[in-house]
Automatic annotation (TrEMBL):
Name assigned to this protein: DUF763 domain-containing protein
Annotated PANTHER family: BLL3834 PROTEIN
Top-level taxon of origin: Bacteria
InterPro entries: DUF763 (IPR008482)
Native source species: Candidatus Brennerbacteria bacterium CG_4_8_14_3_um_filter_43_14
Amino acid sequence: MDRGIATFTLDWGKCPRWLFDRMVYLGKEMIHAIVLTYGPDEFIKRIGDPVWFQSLGTVLAFDWNASGLTTILTAALKQAIRGEEKDLGIFICGGKGKTSRKTPDEIHTWGDRLLLASNTTTSLEYNSRMAAKVDSALVQDGFQIYHHSFFFSRNGAWTVVQQGMNTATQSARRYHWHSAYVHDLICEPHSGIVSQTRVKRVLDLTSRKSTHNRQTGVALLGDGYRTIAHDIQMIQSHRTPLSHTLSFAFGNDRYTAVDLARHEFSYHPVVEERFWDSLYLQKMLKLVCERKPVTYEAFLAMPGVGPKTVRALALVGEIIYGARPSYDDPARYSFAHGGKDATPYPVDTKTYDNTIRFLQDIILKTRVSPLEKNKMFQRLSLLGRNAVQ
């Protein structure tokens, strides 16, 4: 499975009740067939593949490529297994908006009901929280996370599906994680790549190219707050060792790292003593310096550490110490934009073919009527043709 992110148009509409009920019904049949044939861990693994996830949504009748597929499909699957979770060995927590913030509580509740070891439940809760933090703070691509769901099996396999929105570009981006592919929560943890659009410049601190910057950040925190404050004063006074850095887009604007840093560490022009406008940022940097986290993951996991604190530390590391992070979008290629003539790049037909064959096998094993199976096969056939257009 390749690594990456899926991007979609932002959908403001509402799924009609008849469609949602249909997806619940078909989703239940698909899940039963998958678990019976391959086991619960295979279902969790498949959900972690954005191509398969997208294909499943299409087969279940959500046939337009919009952000609603993520939220509606997740809600439909959660509803489909309600009351059967223990029998299936599959558990789905979280969802859209306020429901996403209840994810750790839902995991904890299932841990109690399943009599899981306390360290197992704690680990699942931690992975859920860190996935949300990584995609909101370490991947700063202009998409605000508003949907977070956590799928796990009784055996401990887990998958995260979360989505962010960018209202300025009217688009949404979906992030997939799967436990089997997460060797490091903060270094390239995502599973699968499917994207329709790419952002020209993204502050991506999950990239291996950002390793030096992360290491420099941990070292700075260990040196103490005075060191960081002194470095920020150098940036404010324009006495930076690196006068030129590659420009990048942040939000809808374009900056150099120095431009962005001077905005982050702004000071009041009237009073003599320079100070930051963001008192919260000062407070957070002081707090993390006092606790001296020994790893970057421990720094990120601290309560209150978010995009602004992460960005501030990354900018100091780049501008003062030359530890440049990655500004490349983690999304690497697109099925939608690929072509049979390899323009602008080849379509990964092997991945799509495997997905289609798997879904064909599962449709045959479902207990739905022949007419319903025929409709599902037709949608699957359409998906296959669109994959190579």
